[in-house]
Amino acid sequence: MLKPQRNSVRELVSLDGFWQFRRDPEKTGEASGWPAGFSPECELAVPGSWNEQRSDLMYFFGCGWYQTRFAAPAQWAQRGAWLHVGSAQRRARVWLNGKAAGSHRGGCLPFECNLWPFLHAGENLLVIEVDGSLDPWDLPPARLLEGEERAGFHNSNPAVTYDFFPYAGLPRSVSLQLTPTPTRIETLRIVPRLAADGSEAMIEVTVECSGTSGPRSLGIDVEIDGITQQAVPDSTGRAVIRSSLAHPRLWDVGQPELYVARVSLHAAGRALDAYEQTFGVRTVEVRGDEFLLNGRPVFFTGFGKHEDFAVAGRGFFPPLVVRDFDLLRWIGANSFRTSHYPYAEEWYEYADRHGVLVIAETPFVGFNTRMYCPEVIDRASGLMRDMIQRDRHHPSVVVWSLANEPDIDTAEGDAFFRRLATEARTLDPTRPITYVAHREPENNRPMDCYDLVCVNKYYGWYEQPGEIAGSLAAFGACLDRFRAAFKKPVMIAEFGADAIAGVHLQPAEMFSEEYQADIVAAQYLEARRRPWVIGAHVWAFADFKTAQSITRVTMNRKGVFTRDRQPKLAAHRLRELWQQPALPAEV
Ligand code: GCB
Predict the structure, then answer these.
(1) Nearest residue to 68 (alpha-carbon basis) of 48, 92, 89, 96
(2) Is the distance from CB of 96 to CB of 118 less than 8 angstroms?
(3) Rounded distance, CA 538 to CA 221, Å?
């Protein structure tokens, strides 16, 4: 599936705006005929999580029905028409004019439905049922099973298995993609390979088209940097086109050199479809103790983040993207991790255009051993495939993180993480892989088949609370244990402390801005004493909403920025550390 776009052939109709909404706590909507239209209870903004838009929806985690109307000109009857839903949290069923058009499970990735068979000339009624229920078998598992424990989470409301609010609704754009006929470009895969001396890049473009049966002779053109290559798709609609770029401009941190592949599909001189895919040429490699970008070592500075903002919830909000990247630049960070799920595609596109590195993460968070059963494993493997296929063209994405803090412990867990690693490498042999560990090396045996070790550790917070200086030896020793066990580069993917903005204490104590600033600076410098530590991501970029619990003062306050994106003391301290041309002499 390709992200919808508007170009010389494709038409894009946004359905974003205010949709009519109705709760369905008893799940009787379908039996009551709601697929053909329902009397609404209120209006909600799309994109946007429903929770913070209205007080009565804040803790509503049931089924919610959305409907909107759009007008279709008569000529759409001959066209291809697809509905694209950026994300529905957490399950969705779609009807057009009362006819079932599709369904999807999983709230972090897009899905599409072919609307063409159900489209009317004139007014159309689109209905989407979004089931926001907290399902213990979702990816991520949205709640614990009765009697189940997970450190820190058994007593939260709602009892989610992870430390972020389980927003529901339609948090990303909804649109219609129209092509001149139902025949279209279905998938694209662009793989650039740079010659060792950098003088040339071979670009392999694989195109898959649908609706190719019939007598028409189809042709595909691919234009890159002014040079056009042509091919004829085989009987399955597939074609592989090779092109080359002489002396390619390399994408790098702060140097966002991008290329565009313009792909067109035609028959007898008529354009059937076209797609423009941006990509970059660069190399990434883990070699010895280093992470190399275009052959040069990189040290990752930055954060784990969330898609989270007041009122919008997890809803996509373009000004927030601009603001967050502005703050990353201000503070001197070169990277972030899409903890703990794939984000809206616009985040990666912005990173591509501004030369920021991304560690792209699956939604495999909150996993305990019950998750390693065949049904979940197959679903997880399909989801990871969808994520890699969606995000593989972003030069900013330099590492795939395949999970956050899984409890592995069993033979099934071990096999699951080895299988994920093998599948990720098959889908994308060009990027290093990792997963983010939180326990000890002996609890993370499959890490031996990943390229780099990522560790989350909160010494001075969950362990040795209140001790900054005292935490350093334990923090350093933990990094050393992972290094000794796996002999790979290590990245500290999360460290930090909660700070309530405006709380100042001398001497520094937990929850004060001073404590947070001192601990992140001290641990950052401790990590940098080790030449094989290749990055330090502070948790978190900004404060974010969580479930209610006695450990969270209305939200997780480990943000270096507040939820409304203002700096705490730690942000100023990190800015000094990250903007220095060289590290302080004592490191
Ligand atoms: C972690 C998790 C992250 C939490 C964080 C915390 O290890 O990966 O999702 O928010 O700790 O603040 O406890």
Answers:
(1) 96
(2) yes
(3) 45
Give Cα 324 distance to the centre of its chain: 15
- Three-state SS letters, 376-405: HHHHHHHHHHHHHHHHCCCCCEEEEEEEEC
Take residue 154 and report the two structure tokens written for it. 């058994």
Query: How is residue 56 written in tokens?
Result: 């009565």
Whole-number Å distance between alpha carbons of 445 and 424: 18
Query: What CATH number was assigned to the domain covering residues 299-578?
Result: 3.20.20.80
Helices 374-391 & 345-354, crossing angle to 10 degrees? 40
Q: Which pTM was predicted? A: 0.97
Q: Hey, whose CA ends up nearest to atom 13 of ligand 1?
A: 163
Q: Is the CB of 341 under 6 A from ligand 1?
A: no
Which of 455, 456, 498 for a ligand 1 pocket mutation test, highest count of atoms within 8 Å of Cβ?
456
- Which residue has a Cα nearest atom 4 of ligand 1? 163
Please tell me the CATH superfamily of domain 11-179, with its number: Galactose-binding domain-like (2.60.120.260)
Mean model confidence pLDDT for the chain? 95
Give the tokens for residue 148: 């189940």
Q: Are 49 and 163 in contact (CB under 8 A)?
A: no
Q: Within the chain, which residue ranges are assigned CATH 2.60.120.260? A: 11-179
Q: State how far the Cα of 558 lies from the Cα of 555, in Å rounded to an integer.
A: 9
β partners of residue 304: 337, 539
The answer to whether 123 and 67 are in contact (CB under 8 A) is no
Q: Of 321, 276, 277, 278, whose CA–CA distance to 47 is shortest? A: 321
Atom 3 in ligand 1: which residue has the minimum CA distance?
163
Pinpoint the residues of the chain covered by CATH 2.60.40.10: 184-279
CA of 391 to the centre of ligand 1 (A): 24
Q: What is the pLDDT of residues 124-142, one digit of tens each?
A: 999 999 999 999 999 999 8
Q: Using a 6 Å cutoff on CB, does residue 456 contact ligand 1?
A: yes
pLDDT for 371-381, tens place per residue?
A: 999 999 999 99
* Preceding amide of 340 cis, omega within 30: yes
CB of residue 556 inside a 6 A radius of ligand 1: yes
What is the Cα–Cα distance from 50 to 65, expressed in whole angstroms?
11
Fold of 184-279: Immunoglobulin-like (2.60.40)
Report, as residue numbers or ranges, the catalytic residues.
Answer: 405, 494
DSSP 8-class letter at 354: H
